[in-house]
Amino acid sequence: MRKNRISETIGSIDQKYVNEATAYSGEAKAVRRPVWMKWGAIAACLALVAVIGIGAFQSGLFGGNEQIATLDNGSKINFVKSDGGVAQFDIAFEISTRDLTEDEISNLFGDLPVTGYALFNNEDNSILGIEGKYGDMKLLVSAPGVNISDLVIEGEEMASDVNGVSVNAGYFTSGKNVIYYATFELVESTVYIENAGKKDENETVRNDIADAIQKIIALEKINLSSIPK
Fold first, then answer.
1. With contact defined as beta carbons under 8 Å apart, do 44 and 171 qualify?
2. pLDDT (tens digit, 9 = 90+) per residue, 40-62?
3. In the structure, how many helices (H) and strands (E) does the chain have?
């Protein structure tokens, strides 16, 4: 089994899902999340390790380890079951954030239902990325050459082709919930998106994130350099 690395924000897995996962595994694990301070600087050298209980991932959702979403253009996205993961976040400089304006969101995402805020490196005022939402889904866009955070997933990886873009997608279960996620690159920016819901609504949750992936890829690029501090 290989360790596959995908770019993801630590805050993208809701605390209640992490808590349920650790409870489901029967293991007591301390889980902390970073607190993003809007309009302020975050102290340097933050470090976070969030451990997701492996036991929550031992069996495949509904007995399988791969699920497929078919897009309206006939493309398919394969979501492969994850066996567990360790999320790590470590930066060695001050960062600050600010909300994106409506015009900035429109320039970046067109009419897609995106909201969020930008993260900046206070040392050189460069943009690190965007953290926000696509509708009710969690969304992260990392600037070129930047890893805002990292998630190491235990499991096999299968890339899907969506309009010429390679998409790595997966899912895991947490108690009565299922979480689907995907990561892909648009030009030099890295996009991570996640959608969570009840297991008995898994088809809707999976199809909703697949539709979002297709629409974001249709943008062709997300030019973060256009966002000033």
1. no
2. 333 333 333 333 333 333 344 44
3. 3, 15
Q: Would you report the helix, strand and coil content of the chain in percent, each value rounded to 5?
A: 20, 40, 35
Q: Which amino acid is at 39?
A: W
The string of DSSP letters for 170-196 reads EEEEETTEEEEEEEEEETTEEEEEEEE
Q: CA 14: distance to chain centroid?
A: 11
Closest Cα partner for 107 from 220, 213, 222? 222
Please state the pTM of the whole predicted model.
0.72
pLDDT of residue 139: 95
Residues with Cβ within 8 Å of 139's Cβ and at least 6 positions away in sequence, in order, are: 114, 116, 130, 131, 132, 133, 191, 192, 193, 194
More confident residue, 38 or 218: 218
Instruction: Name residue 27's amino acid.
Output: E
